[in-house]
Design goal:
With 181 residues, this protein is of the alpha+beta class. The protein is 15% helix and 54% strand.
Length: 181
């Protein structure tokens, strides 16, 4: 079974690579400027995340959903972006995360980001004063990245983030769906 899976993956990768190699008849031919396909850089990006939160200290896994917004600056060549996000984790403990976002997009498909955030834990309590008085509000620092597949102004992005709260680390991973405006 493992050997068949390995052979299938190898053939798929080889087919993708060989198609790119043989697609160009003359490797030394100079491509004219009008032949180069232009990628559209959208200033505004709105995204939805569907994934999971894994707490590495106790092994708990929770459903994680969220929305994010990013604005890309034109004068930076759409490399640098700022924005924010709201995310919820629903499992044994209910959490909400609110944060700012600083992203760097060195290539059209790849994005890295850092997000200083605030996390609210155990949101099932009814009185907001109880939340604030029991130190359930903590600072969270998120590092992450994604790889986007684009179809016109839409994107699908496998995403992974590391959330650091004090000395504990959690992983948030999933699929992001986005639209560029």
């Amino acid at each position: 079974m493992k050997k068949a899976l390995f052979i299938t993956v190898f053939i798929t990768i080889f087919a993708c690579i060989s198609h790119k190699l043989y697609a160009q008849d003359n490797w030394f031919e100079v491509i004219e400027d009008e032949e180069v396909q232009q990628m559209h850089n959208y200033n505004h990006h709105l995204g939805l995340l569907l994934g999971a939160l894994s707490n590495l200290s106790n092994g708990e896994i929770s459903l994680s959903t969220g929305i994010d917004y990013t604005y890309r600056f034109n004068n930076s060549g759409a490399i640098i972006g700022v924005g924010g996000f709201i995310e919820g984790a629903f499992g044994k403990h209910t959490e909400a995360i609110f944060g700012g976002l600083l992203s760097v997009k060195p290539w059209e498909e790849v994005q890295f980001h850092i997000a200083p955030s605030i996390i609210y834990r155990d949101l099932h309590t009814k009185i907001i004063d109880e939340i604030h008085s029991t130190s359930k509000v903590k600072f969270l620092l998120r590092f992450g990245g994604n790889f986007s597949f684009h179809i016109e102004n839409f994107s699908i992005s496998p995403t992974i983030n590391a959330d650091i709260v004090g000395s504990k680390v959690g992983l948030v991973y999933g699929i992001g769906f986005g639209v560029g405006i």
